[in-house]
Structures are given as C-alpha cells and as structure tokens.
Amino acid sequence: MRIHYFRLYTVLLAFVLVGSPRLEAQVNTREHGGPGVADAFENPPRLVVGIVVDQMRYDYLTRFWDHYGKKGFKRLIGEGFLGKNHHFGYAPTSTGPGHASVYTGTTPSGHGIIGNNWYDKNTDSGVYCVGDPSKTSVGTTTNAGQYSPHRLMTTTITDQLRLHYQMRSKVISVAIKDRGAILPGGHTANAAYWFEGGASGDWISSSHYMDALPAWVQVFNASNLAELYMQLWKLSHKPETYVESGPDNVPYEGVFPGEAAPVFPHDLPALWAANGGYNLLKATPFGNSLTLDFALEALEKEGLGADEITDFLAISFSSTDYVGHIYGVNSKEIQDTYIRLDEELERLLKELDRSVGEGAYTVFLTADHGVSPVPAYLADAGIPAGYLYKSKMHERLGEFMSFTFGTTDLLKGFSNNQLFLDHDLMRNLELDPEDVRTQFAEELLKYDGIYMVYTSGQLRNGSFTEGIEAILKNGYNQKRSGDVILVPPPAYIEYSETGTSHGSPHIYDTHVPLIFYGKGVVPGSTVRKTYIRDIAPTLAVMLGIAFPNGSTGTAIGEVLE
Fold first, then answer.
1. Which of 24, 56, 173, 548 sits in a 20 to 30 Å window from 68, CA-based?
2. Domain span(s) for CATH 3.30.1360.150 in the chain
3. Among positive and negative, which fits the CA dihedral 533, 358, 344, 301?
4. Rounded to 5 degrees, what angle do the CA atoms 171, 173, 175 make?
5. What's the burial of 464, exposed, middle or buried (CB within 10 Å: 0-12/13-18/19+)?
6. Residues 42-379+511-559, CATH architecture
7. What are residue 430's DSSP bridge partners?
8. Which residues have a catalytic role annotated?
9. Residue 381 to residues 60, 385, 492, 536: CA-CA distances in angstroms?
10. Domain 389-448+450-487 CATH assignment equals 3.30.1360.150
11. Tens place of pLDDT for every residue, the chain, 561 residues?
C-alpha cells in the first residue's frame, strides 16, 4: 500500500514540476508566441526563393488578373499572403537602391546605395553602384564582370543566412542585370550571375565570387539556349482580348531600332543587328524566360534545398523593366510580358514542388520600384503631367550662380535629382554652406518642373514621420548624398516623350506588390501599410537568424505562423 502511495506521489510531483504535455504546450504558447514557433526553429524551409520583378507596379496584379492562369500569381496569392499597401519608404526609387533595400532591411540612408549611379564627393567622379575595377571578369574577356557589392555598407539577409550556418548555406543570385544579381547576393554569396548579351549571349560573373565559371555554367552557355529565344514576339492571346491596355500603335511608345512602329509582332531575328545582338532579348519577355532557365539549372546543379540547411535562390526578372521603359504602362507589350511572366512563375513553382518538395520552401515576391504613366499620354487625357529639361535648368543655374556668388563653379555634380556643391570653394569664398544651399533651393523653386526642394541640412536635422519629407530623409545618406534635393511634380519625369521612367517619391513609384508563400507563411492579406525594409526582418524572424546589421524595418507579424 505504501508503495502505491509513493508511486501516486511521484506521479503527482512530476506532473506539478514538469507538467503534462498539454500544459507544457500551453506554457510554451504563452512564452513563445504561438504554436508552431519551435517547429519553425527546428524545421526551417530548406530553400528560400526571393523574387524581385523589376518595375512592377501593384496594379499589374489587379489589371491583368483575368489573364493570369491558376498556378502562377493566383496560386501565390490564393495560398499565400498578400500585402496590398506595400511601399518604398524612400527615394530615389530605382533598381540598385531597390534590390539593396529588399535584402538589407533598410533604406539608402543606411545601406548607402543611393542610386544606380551617383556623383562621388570623394573622387569627384561618377560611380556605378556595383562597379569595381579591382575585380576581373569571369566568363568573358570584356569588362562586363568588373563588379562587386563593395559599395553596399551593410549586410543582407543572405549574408546573415550564410553567417548563421557557418557558411554552409548556399546563396545563388541570378538576374539579367548585374546589379539585380549582385546586391541580393550580398557580400558572401556563393555566386552571382548576370547576362552579358551582345554577341555571346552568355551568363557571366566576377572574380569577387570565383576564379572560373563552374562546369555547369559553361555547359549552359555552350548550349546557346539564348538563340532559341530570338524568335517572333507575338501576342499570347487574341489582340481584342487585351482590353486592359491601350491600342497597339500609339505615339506614346518607343520602338526598337529597325522598326517603323511599336506594333506586334516584333521580328527579333530581323532586329538582331540593329539592337546589340542578344541585348535585344533583355527588352522582351523571353529575357525573363532565359533567366528562369538559368535559375532552374542553378537549382539543380548546385543542389539548392537538398538538405536541412536553408539555402537561398535570389531571382530578379529584369526584362519587365526594359519593356516598361520602351513601351510604358499602358502598352500591350507590358501586358503580354506580365502574362508570360505568370507562366514562368507557374513553371518555377512546379519545379520547386518537384525538386525541393511542396511545403518545404518559402517564396517571396516584390518589386524594386514602380513606374510612372507616360506623361504625354496623361497630358493628352487632360491630366497634369510633363517633362523635366535639365539642360534649361543648368543654364539658368549658371546665370544665378554668376549673379549671386560671382562664380559658376559652385555646382560640381548632379545626379538622382541632387545637386552636389563645391565645399572647398565655399570655404575659400567664406560662404556659409547652409546659406548657399538655401539660396539654391529658393532659386530652384521658381523653375517649372520643380515641385519641392530640400537642403541636406533640412533632411539631417528635421524629424519627419510621414509624407515626401520622410521619404527623402530615408533616401538621404550623409556620406554620399548631395546638398540640395529636388522633387518633380507628380507625373513629371526626365525622359524621352515615348516610354516612361521612375525614381520619384510619388505613389506610382513607391506602391509595389508583396507576396509571401510557402513554409512558415500564414495565408491572408493586409491593407496595413508595410515597407520594403520590412521584408528582410520578416525573413529573419521566420528563419530564426540575426537581422541584417543595418536593418531598420519591422517584421510583418501577419505573415508569420
């Protein structure tokens, strides 16, 4: 009897001290935030696929929805999470800063990629965001591989993944554009590859990553797959079904050299010589197809997602940007490009299901920036819009400087709507820098095509939480940005009067899609405002790894299990 009492006592004591499995689960839920957290740490996705669609406005999801199949965008959104109010919280909105911000979890103020190109105050010269003459090309005899991420001032989510697993995690990054491959890969990627185009049609890299192309890349290049895409570009569906875009032949669209009008079909073989050989593919949907072909080859040959250590495949679809620049938002060319991109997404998901396993991978999709409607089209529709003519502005500024300061040499550089002033000359002339900046700002506000002007002092010292001022401050880097920052009016761009561009702090350039799909993602949506800088922190929480070291974003709780 005493033995029975002792056994009962020990059982009760164990229950109190340790707890039943159910009680233990309840305690863990309270302490750690919900069921599935421990499982997420112990069983992270085997592969993360980051997709950046270059120049994708949010409304390309909704406008072209009826033309999408069930297994591309619709699968991602229907089974995943959609951010409906997702924005770039900075300007300039362009490719280099966009890719850097997605992967660093911060803005140009932190990561330092303030444009695709910018005036460098230290060298008194223009620089390219990934240009690096200290590196050598790999896979080509040209200088098309002399690039690296050395100007990126912080780590990326891909860097943190590599660090977390003691460099055992594999990171491969692929894009038509060099900057679209290099910046997502971060400093420590196993490889970044981009498309040289020209006469070769090869995928190349940099000595930052390797001494020679892997055998599988050499085999891929030798296959001349790019040549198969030099074909007739015709509409995927009947022209009359493209009711979401304008007429095919309008004066607002650019043309390929060698074409008389911007109309389908586009005969790529006939346009080859006049358009830089394989460079022509970049400005067609087939550039995206070739990108995915190469990415899937990397997936297989590098064994991504083949074990329990999380790998990362970064894919940037660049051709959407080239097409958009030439033809604009309202063109049948851009609509057909997105219809075909939807098919490529279906192909990607199907292969991920097969090779990694459905439920074993995570995908996110966003853009690096939006894009403006063609101003000439808006103007003809009676909407305020127009073009910036910087040559006229420079002429007037020369007269202003001569009259006000007795010299025309104060302006040293102009890039990304920023003026860079000569600080040595200001000291020699005993001029107060902020006073000079203010006088420039007051002068520029008088010019047509200028909406707002801010000085660097205003951005450094001001505290802004919303509006264009906050967007500009987030894009302002103290070491690299200029002295005076200009903002054009809405729907005003510096570009040709056909096609369109981007870069502003206005809503059409900042509002882009955000989709999360797969392992660790709670299906649903939000209309709460989220930001590009929130993507990397969300991934970090999902993967249980450290945030990128310059991160200023906030994890999107609605996405996470």
1. 173
2. 389-448+450-487
3. positive
4. 175
5. middle
6. 3-Layer(aba) Sandwich (3.40)
7. none
8. 95
9. 21, 10, 15, 40
10. yes
11. 333 433 333 333 333 333 333 323 333 333 334 445 556 667 999 999 999 999 999 999 999 999 999 999 999 999 999 999 999 999 999 999 999 999 999 999 999 999 999 999 999 999 999 999 999 999 999 999 999 999 999 999 999 999 999 999 999 999 999 999 999 999 999 999 999 999 999 999 999 999 999 999 999 999 999 999 999 999 999 999 999 999 999 999 999 999 999 999 999 999 999 999 999 999 999 999 999 999 999 999 999 999 999 999 999 999 999 999 999 999 999 999 999 999 999 999 999 999 999 999 999 999 999 999 999 999 999 999 999 998 889 999 999 999 999 999 999 999 999 999 999 999 999 999 999 999 999 999 999 999 999 999 999 999 998 999 999 999 999 999 999 999 999 999 999 999 999 999 999 999 999 999 999 999 999 999 999 999 999 999 999 999 999 999 999 999 997
Helices (H) and strands (E) in the chain, counts: 24, 21
Check: CB of residue 248 under 8 Å from CB of residue 236.
no
Closest CA to 113 of 133, 134, 144, 88: 88
Chain region(s) in the chain for CATH 3.40.720.10:
42-379+511-559
Q: Which residues of 168-187 are buried (b: 16+ CB within 10 A; e: fewer)?
A: ebbbbbbbbbbbbbbbbbbb
Total residue length of the chain: 561
For residue 130, which of 89, 186, 171, 200 has the smallest C-alpha distance? 186
d(CA 528, CA 139): 45
Which pair of structure tokens corresponds to residue 310? 């999380």
- Would you list the DSSP string of 390-431? HHHHHHHHHHHHHHHHS-S-SEEEEETTEEEE-HHHHHHTT-
Report helix, strand and coil shares of the chain as percent, to nearest 5: 40, 15, 40
Q: Which two tokens stand for residue 264?
A: 């389908």
Q: Which two tokens stand for residue 165?
A: 């697993």
